[in-house]
Write the structure tokens for this entry.
Amino acid sequence: MLNVETRHAIDPATARGFDTETLRRHFHVGGIFRDGEIRLIYTHYDRMIVGGAVPAGGALILDKVAEAGTESLLDRREMVVVNIGGDGTVSAAGSDHAMAKGDMLYLGMGSGPVTFAGQGRFYILSAPAHGIHPTRLIRIAEAATINLGSAEAANARTIYQFVHPDVMKACQLVVGLTRLEPGSIWNTMPAHVHDRRSEAYLYIDLPESARAIHLMGEPTETRHLVLKNEEGAISPPWSIHAGAGTSAYTFIWAMAGDNVDYKDVDMVAMETLR
């Protein structure tokens, strides 16, 4: 079963007037992992798609998505699949890819229908492509890593860069995950924006009773979303994207836009935040 929701782009002046319910309706990502379903959110931020596929021991096929306007979704798109659940298999372009939790699979433009099977919980990210790059399965040991922060600042974390220029070539998707150490809760603070790229976050590995507070909005007009495990946020180019949790957690970040330069950000001074 395929379910697709469209999210139109919101300008920062309009977002300033949103109450909590309206803010969540436009930027909150939730309910995308349901047994036996593929659920996608087609955004108008760099035409990025975020979603989930849960075959629950069976098989699900992702092919035509009317919102993309092509016969098959990957006719003019690239895709990254992240397994956040049990062992599963993703099949495309005549090849089967066994995926454990934490593995990421890049599928290039023209890969055709995608089949999800097994006990995996598959997080789906897709953006328009301008060229063809080869399919690649990247395990966490193959990711580029950066250690940042400190226990004293409650932000000791490891950044794993999977679909990233230091690891492989893609058209515009840049995808990785950040894992907080026990006792650390803060991510991406001091904050930044990158007006040349949109981003999406998915928070995972949170206990049932824990929550992540995702900070967003213009630097001088910040807002927040309260998120539970396997929920996330769509981050417009004009918005900061930082957060803190009631326990340690992992989050998957994905960017699409003008370039793939991970360091192309505009830092926001702490004294600027409001």
About this structure: The chain has one domain: 2-272.
